[in-house]
Amino acid sequence: MPHAGCIQPMYQSDTEFLFPMRVAPKLRDLRGSRWRELVDHVCAAPDASLEHLAFTMMIIRISNCLTCHTHSYRALQGCTVCSIQSIRRFRGEDEELIALYDTAYNELSQRIQLSQDNPLVEKSTHE
After folding, report:
1. Which residues contact 84 (CB under 8 A, 6 or more apart)?
2. Predicted confidence band at 1 (pLDDT cuts at 50, 70, 90)?
3. Alpha carbon distances (Å) from 20 to 8, 70, 101
4. pLDDT of residue 74
5. What is the pLDDT of residues 25-43, one digit of tens each?
6. pLDDT tens sequence across 44-102
7. Terminal Cα-to-Cα distance of the chain (whole angstroms)
8. Phi, psi of 70 (to 5 degrees)
């Protein structure tokens, strides 16, 4: 038995610690045309783009990924099933989902700008 503080692996092969972008195309046809346009736009963006990060952040918030753990029902279902259920169960209109995406996009954009403008933030040595 692992001691306290050990991170246990997720046993469902579709379960990751945070929402994986590989699942995004499966969410495309769950809502209306505006939602499909957003998913198409995000999926066409380059890997690790601001669009990918914002979409991931939005789904993490909607699906409560940060509270998922090894033995939770959500983890046992996997990320694909969980995110599909979260988008299907979202009670708002597509415009509200898009607004949540826009909020995440703007937050990340501001954080990136602040980190680039701040000389105290350590710059990557891989640039």
Report:
1. 26, 27, 30
2. very low
3. 19, 16, 16
4. 82
5. 999 999 999 999 999 999 9
6. 999 999 999 999 999 999 999 899 887 788 888 899 999 999 999 999 999 999 999 99
7. 42
8. -45, -45
Contact between 3 and 62 (Cβ < 8 Å) = no
Cβ-proximal residues to 25 (8 Å cutoff; 6+ apart), any chain: 39, 43
Instruction: Tell me how far apart the alpha carbons of residues 77 and 23 are, in angstroms, rounded to a whole number.
Output: 14
Helix axes of 79-89 and 50-63: crossing angle, nearest 10 degrees: 80
Which residues are CB-contacts of 26 (< 8 A; sequence separation ≥ 6)?
A: 80, 83, 84
Q: What is the C-alpha separation between 103 and 84, in angstroms, rounded?
A: 21
Are 75 and 15 contacting, i.e. CB atoms less than 8 angstroms apart?
A: yes
In this structure, the chain runs to a length of: 127
Closest listed residue to residue 74, CA positions, set 20, 89, 83:
83
